[in-house]
Every structure is written in C-alpha cells, then in structure tokens.
Structure prediction request, 686 residues.
Amino acid sequence: MNQTLRKAGAFLCLLLLVASSTSFAQGTAFSYQGRLNSGGNAASGSYDLQFTLYATNATGTAAAGPVTNAAVGVTNGLFATLVDFGPGVFTGASNWLEIAVSTNRANSFTPLSPRQQLTPVPYALTAASVSGVVAADQLSGSIPAAQISGALTVAQLPGGVVTNGEGSVNLAGTFAGNASALTNIQLTAIGLGGTFSQPGFSPFVAYPVGRYPVGVAAADFNGDGKVDLVSQNADAYNLTVLTNNGYGVFGSNATLSVGTYSTCVIAADVNGDGKPDIISLSINGPLLVFTNDGSGGFGAGTTYAPGSEPTWVAAADIYNNGRPALVTAVSANNVLLVMTNNGDGVFGSNATLNVGGLPLYVLAADVNGDGKVDLVSANGNDGTLTILTNNGYGVFGSNATVTVGTYPEALAIADVNGDGKVDLIAGNGAGTLTILTNNGSGIFGSNATLRVGSSPVAVVATSLNGNAGDGTLTVLMNTGGGIFVSNAALNLAGANDLVAADVNGDGLPDLIAASAAKNAVDVILNLRTISAGGEWSFTNALNNFAGSGSGLTGLNASQLTTGTVPLAQLPATVVTNTEAGVTLSGTFSGNGGGLTNLNSAQLTGILPTNVLPGFNGADNAVGGGSGNAIVNGYQATIAGGQNNTINATNGAGNFSYQPTIGGGYGNTVSAYYATIAGGENNLANG
Prediction:
C-alpha cells in the first residue's frame, strides 16, 4: 500500500494557530490535521494512526508515545484528530512528530517520512515569555506553585480571602493565640466556665493629714469592725487617726503629738487588751507607745529611747510568751535593738544584734518553719539582707547574709512560688525588686530581679510596691510559680509608705499610701472587675451603682429595698385607692358610711324604723303585730299585738310623749301619759 502524507506540517501549524486563539491551553491534547494519500490518490475510509515524539528529525529514542488513535476518518485525503502525550512533554525544546498508519484494525503500522517538526504558533511564542497581567479567566487547570514567582496584589485575591488589617470580618470556629490586643469583647460572647479575677483599682481618694506624711498603718482602732488608718506626719510632728465609715470613706478622729523627723508608724496590741495600740518612731527619737482605750481614744504616749538614728520598728512575739516585743533598726550603730514587753505594754532593753551597714528596715517572721519568729534587716550601705534565726527564747544567731540590689529599704514576706515556704521580697533604691525564694530552712536564693519605678520605698505581700522616686505604684501579678508580670502603674505623687488592707469590707485588699507631696493619705480601692463561675457578679467600692437600670432583667422584688414603685408599673389587676369600675366579692368589714346606691335586695335583717324613709319621731305609728319597738316617738301608736314596746327615751335625752298601744298581750309602754287600750298582762308607766 503506497501511502504518503502531504503538507502535514503546514496544516499542523495552521490548526494549532487557530486552536490556540480560541481555546487557550485547554488541557494537554492538541489537534493534528493532515492529508493522507494512498497510491498517489487522496485516501478515503477509516485508518489507524500512531503518533510518536522525537527530539531529533531522524533516529533517536522516542521522547513520548506512541499514541494510537484508532478508526480515524479520512475523506478526500483530509483528516483531523486529537493527540495527547500527557503533561510535562513540551518543555520548550524542539520536537519532531513521527506518524505511522495502518488500515483499520490491521494493527500493522507503516511509518511515514519525513518526521514533522512541531513549530510554535504566535500564541505559543508569547506564552514562552509572557509578562504583565494575565486575566484569571484565561487560565484553567492547576499550576504548580514552583512555576509562579512574584506576589499577587490584594485586588487579585478572591473576595472571601481575609487579609491583615481587614475590618467587618466574621469568622467561626476555634481560635488560639495571644488575645491581649482584643477590645470591645462582649460579656455575652464569653462562656461562663472558669473564673476571671483581674484586679482593677479605683482612682485614689486623698484624705488630708499633717504635713509630709512618711508612714501609714491600718487597724480597727475604735472596735467597730472597720479598718481605720493612722499616718505619721514628719514635718507636723504628729499622727493623724482616720476613722472608717465601713465603705472606705475616712474622717479625721484624733491628732497625736510625736517627735521630730518621724520615720514610721505601726499598730500592735502591746498590752494584751485586744485593742490595737500605736507605736511611732522618729529618727531623732523618741519611740512613743500610745495605748488605745478601745473606742479609738489615745492617751499621751510613753517615751522610750530607741538608739541612735532609728529608721524602722517591728512588733513581734520573739520570746514566745504572748507579749509583742519591739525591734528597732538603729542605722547609726548598724544594729537591731530588741525591747522586751512586761505584758502591760511597758518595754525595757534586752539585746543588741549586729547586722549590716545602715539598716533601714527590719522584718519579723518565721523564715525557717520552726514556729519561732526570726528577724531580717535590710542594709542600705551593703546592698544585703541579714537573716537572724531565733532559738525560741529571743536569742538570735546569724543565719545568712544575702545580696540584693542597691540600697534596699523595704521588705515584704510571702510564699511567692506556692511551695508553702515564706519567701522574701526586697525593694531596692535602683528601681528593682529582688525575689528571694526559701528552701524551707531559712536559706534563700535569688529567684528574680524585677524592674519597677525608681527608688521603691515600700513593698507589701500582696505583690504591690510603691515607688516614691517617680510617684507611681507598680502592680506585679504573680503567675503562681513566683513569676511576676507587670499589671499596672498607678500614678501617686510622693508616696512614702504603703500598706494593703480591706478598707471597704468587700474581701479584696485595697491600697493605702502616705503621700508626702499632697500632705494626704491616698486610698486606692481594689475593684474586682469581673468574676465568673456560672454567674456574672460585679462589685465596686460601695457595692452601689448609679445610672439607668432600664436594661436590667431578672430582678427579684426582694432585691428592692428603698423607694416607691409607681402605679404605672403595678399589674393591671391591682386595685388602688379612689379607683372606679372595681368589682370585688367576699366578706368586707369596716365603716360603710360612704357606700351609695345600695339595693334592698342586698340587705339582710330588720331595719330600725328611724332609718326608714319619711320617719318622724314626733308622730309614729305601727299597724300591729309582734315584737315591735318605738324609741323616741312623739304620740307614737302601735295598733296592737304581742310583746310590743314604746320606750320613754333612747338615751339621748329625747322622750316619747302620749304614746298609745291599742291592746293585745304583754305590751309595755314607758312614757308620759301612756295609754294601753286593753288586753291582758300589759304594762304602762308614766
């Protein structure tokens, strides 16, 4: 069979050009159109065609194929068929197509020559070096990411793609990550499981005291169950006692004179009467003890010599005898002075304990867990703490000297890492806190150094420290393992001392600072913002909220304690005074004098004659019968009957005159000129 292929290349090129301009790269198949001659004449019929791709125009190894298309129709020598070698074949290199032909189903293929080179059409030439923007609707199928370079613009992304900074986004599902930057979260969108306990603090309220307060203490001085305050005022040489109304609102109660250049004030029951007394210390002396009469009244203070330039005083039962001794930090002599208590609040010197250079603060606490009160001094010149352990009889041995920050002048004690052992917190003049964890035997190791405000002068065990240098309070929250994170900085001017106490009775520790710059004591209430454990509950300083409650729901009537409910808010069935159109049933009692429009059918019993219409007491007549009675009837007449009565008077000074009973049986008349016409057993008096 003499078969030849003519003009295949030209037809192929023409067909690819047309296909590319109308179909745009649809899949990997391409159309092939050619002319088949058999014996010099145009072939017609059904033929099997086989296509193989080579990288050369003769010999070589096939790059793809063969692909066999069976029963391809040929008419007047012309045919068209799709050829698909699959993906990854046409990579830009030159290729030649070898075609073999077989009569239908003969399965004996004869290669045709020469091989036909596949040349690019204009669109294919463009695709090899495309640049610029290609419309998305001109692409189909999947493009490997490795074949794409550059970055898409936001405008080229589908509308459903969320980009950074986008607003009005609605997402559903479970999300993880840091939510600290989220705002405007609605409480109704938060599940009620778990507990929120994020403390917040009110703006401070400043209560005036004497000039330049340097110390503050909190205790119930007047025995009313509410925490009162006392401030030590250095430039005024006095103490100011502030009494509490129970809501954290204070009024001045007393002023007590003290020494010059006072340094601190504490409260302790020194005479065992159950009432907190006041101990005041001045750097030039003296140490003064003011005993409390139980109602917040204090007599003249008892004076003691605390040593040269004392800076701090602590009260503790260091002798295990139930009597608090006083321990002063004597900065000029680098010692602690122990003053014993005779039980009546009278003190005598007992011991002098050597510590580091310039002791500025002394703390009394059981640091080694043996049930005996030990002592810790903060030594400003050395940047150390001296830890003195107690044998139980007030005899102290040096246990350790621990290095902290520069110029420590404040101490606090607390179990910061939750291991049941008390740890130490030192406030250092360099603007840091040193956290020292306890191994349980009073041996301390440095755990952390925390940056706070400059020159902290007070630190309390609720992890709140006052920074006098920059006039702030730094709030540090404990994560539970002795790791602290900064929570808030509260602006206070010239804070010199700080204590924590629940002054408004809500169970939360509040902050009280001695503010030298304002000559005042600042009270900062702790406001629990949210607490959720199945129900939401809110509190504020006075447990009192103001404003519109129109949005509140679920209120119970028992929760309303004051005020009057307007009539408009009562149920429609409630009957109010002066209301008209009311229908009631039942039994009623009281004065019915105001009733009108009564019907006789509504009445039971017998009406007295004097209430009958037309009744005239001067001329009464009863036709007869039994049991009739006339009272105060002038010329009254009962025609007759049985057991009738006419009385002379009704008790009001009115008389029956000339009464007559016509007759009958058992009738009685008591009046002037009375007449009974006849009958039996009748009686007339008058």
Q: What stands out?
A: The chain has a mean pLDDT of 76. The radius of gyration is 55 Å.
